[in-house]
Structure formats: structure tokens, C-alpha cells
């Protein structure tokens, strides 16, 4: 058989797998070899860097790494080939994420574009929108933020008040979004806005693509309990975006937004679990080193964490395979699984690390050149950051309460919760 380069974008990975004996094993070795050959030099310093609560770490260098991945054909693996992807199978995507974690490769910076907006544009966007935006997601030259949450709505997406009105060739947007991850480093934001006056709840919403450098857009980083600022407030004061930058028809925003959330809580959880497994492995190593693994209670909690991670991975595979009763229910179950597991891991890290967790960190100049918002922030160690940042996991992206209501009402058919 002729040898081919599996990192070459000209190779349709799914088609190649269908005609290649032992394809998964061959693909796994190709991914492993490429990561070994490329996580060297300056890139080697990025091992284990970045991720939620740590996005300030070497952001510019991690962006360069993502573009290096893109040039080698390792971005957008699951997208159809005709849209710039690789046509990878579910098994191949799982293999890639697993090997990426084993190599200790850095957290990616293009998650919202590659895993959320890109698939949404492929599903709901016009050919012109796909041609305009997808290539720049593939090559990581444009980054995206998510404009969903608002101060008065939180996890209640149907309660958004940000409005948009069509004025000739533009939508004119007014309102505020909050908890907008990495907006201060992104070029674009996908925004849910109310485009029909007097509409309520799920009705009258539209899904708009908005340039963040437009007049009338103000971005203010929010300092978190970790001392870093990866979340933002975004204000729209008569901000404009082109009339054709609406995904779906006016009023279809709820349908498009829910479609995007299926992508967020489906395939993209595989990448998220890369970081989770690395954190758990590091915590087990710490417990072994400091002797806390000999405490029966801690040993039991570590075992439960390993089982919980395996359950998450199995649920992700099941969701991707379409073996689900309700897409809405599957998405909510996925969110509940990872949010509570990760919060519990933060509390377990405090028990394993012990007294050092209580030592207040000092302000440091180390890495200030890489800080993405506040060069004077206080640097935490990885376990302090894990404990503090994971307090938010059961709130952002849809709170536990909202997810349980969705499961109760849309899957189990229970009566709707009474609203004030």
C-alpha cells in the first residue's frame, strides 16, 4: 500500500479509514508520531498550559501552536471535507483527543469557532457565510466569542433582552452580554438578540454574527476569583453588523442556538475531557507523592473520579453515535455530568494538596508578558486555581437547576416549573 501523510488536508480521513485495514491503529500512531515530532523547541514549553482558569498562560504562543496544527491538517477533523475539514470518523476524533492529552499538548484557543460556530454554520448557514467564515476558523486566523448570557437572564437564554433592528443594510444592536469568554481576544461574536418587538421567551430571537471591532461595541474584562480575566462584559450601543450576517431566518434564533448547544455538549466535550484527564492524572500523581493516597477516603474519592471520567467519555460516545432518546436531554445530562464531576475534582484537589492550598499566593511578575488581561494579577498554583475556578462550572453554560428542569419537562414530561 502506498504510504500517505495522514496530516495532509487532501486526505479524507473517513474515506481512508473505510478502505484501510487496522485504520484506527495506523491513525493513532500517525497522531502520536506527529505530536512527538512537533511538541519540541518553544512549543515544548507549552505542555499542560492554558484551559479554563488559565487562559492567560502563553496565549499568543498557544495561538501560534493552533495555527501550526492547522497548517499540518489537524484542525476541524470532524468537519466535512467540502467545508475544509477532514471527514474524520468518531473513533478517529476520540483517538486524536486521547493522544493529544497523553502528549500534554496545550489547551486550544479556537474552541468556540471550531467546535461550536463552525458546525452551526455548516448546518444552518448560507453558502456565502460558509465561504466567508469557515476557512478562517480552519486556519485559526479569526477567533470567536459567544454572546448568549445577559445580566438579567443568566442561564435563561430565552430571557435575553438585547435587541436588534434592521436598518437598511445593517442590523443595529443594543444591549449587554456577560461572561463572554475571551471576547477581548476575539474578532467576532455570535449573538442572540431579540429582533421582533413585543416578542417573549423563545419567540422573536435571531442569531447574528457581529464584528467585535465595530463602532458601538465595548468590551470590559471581568476579574475572576482566580485573579485572571478571561470572561468579559460586552456592550452594544447602536453597534452594526451586515444584514446578511444572520444565521437562519429572522426569528429562528432559538432553533439555531439550540442546535449550537448540541454541538457544544456533544463532540466538543471530547476536547474538554483532554484537560480533565490530565488534571486527574496529575492529582493522582500528587496523592502518590505526598502519601495522601494511603488515606482510604481519598483513595476512594480518586477511584470514583476515575469512574466518573469513564462515564463521561462513554456518554460522549453514546451521544455522538446518536443513541439517545432526546437531544435536549442528552445535552443537559452531559452538562450535569461534567460540571459536577469537575467541581468535585476541585474539592478533591484541596483534600489531596492539604495545607499548601491555604497559603496565600504572592503577586508575581512571572509570565506577565503572557497575561491576557491584567498584568498585575495574582498567580495561583494549579490546585488553587482548580478549586476556585470550578466553583463556576455548575453555573456557566447553563446552571444545574436549568439542566434539571430541561430533563424533567422535555424528557420526562413533568409539569413545567411555576414561574414568578
TrEMBL record:
Limits of the Acyl-CoA oxidase/dehydrogenase middle domain: 145-238
Family of the protein in this entry: Belongs to the acyl-CoA dehydrogenase family.
Descriptive protein name: Alkylation response protein AidB-like acyl-CoA dehydrogenase
InterPro entries cross-referenced by the UniProt entry: Acyl-CoA_Oxase/DH_mid-dom (IPR006091), Acyl-CoA_Oxase/DH_mid-dom_sf (IPR046373), AcylCo_DH-like_C (IPR036250), AcylCo_DH/oxidase_C (IPR009075), AcylCoA_DH/ox_N (IPR013786), AcylCoA_DH/ox_N_sf (IPR037069), AcylCoA_DH/oxidase_NM_dom_sf (IPR009100), Mycobact_Acyl-CoA_DH (IPR052161)
Molecular function GO terms recorded: flavin adenine dinucleotide binding; oxidoreductase activity, acting on the CH-CH group of donors
Domain of life: Bacteria
Source organism per UniProt: Gordonia humi
Keyword flag Disulfide bond: no
Presence of keyword Flavoprotein: yes
Keywords tagged on the record: FAD, Flavoprotein, Oxidoreductase
Domain Acyl-CoA dehydrogenase/oxidase C-terminal: from-to ranges: 251-412
Cofactor(s) required, per the database record: FAD
One Gene Ontology CC term in the entry: plasma membrane
Domain Acyl-CoA dehydrogenase/oxidase N-terminal: 55-139
Pfam families: Acyl-CoA_dh_1, Acyl-CoA_dh_M, Acyl-CoA_dh_N
